[in-house]
Amino acid sequence: MTPPRPQRKPSMKSIVARVVLGAALIVGVHSAVPAGAVITDRIVVDQRTGLALYGFDPVGYFTDGQPVIGRMDLEYSFAGAIWRFRNEGNRAAFTDHPDVYMPRYGGYDPVSIGRGLAIAGHPSLWIMVDSRVYLFANAASREAFSVDPRGTIATASAKWPQLQRTLLP
Question: Could you tell me which of 167, 58, 161, 153 has the C-alpha nearest to residue 118?
Answer without folding.
Answer: 167
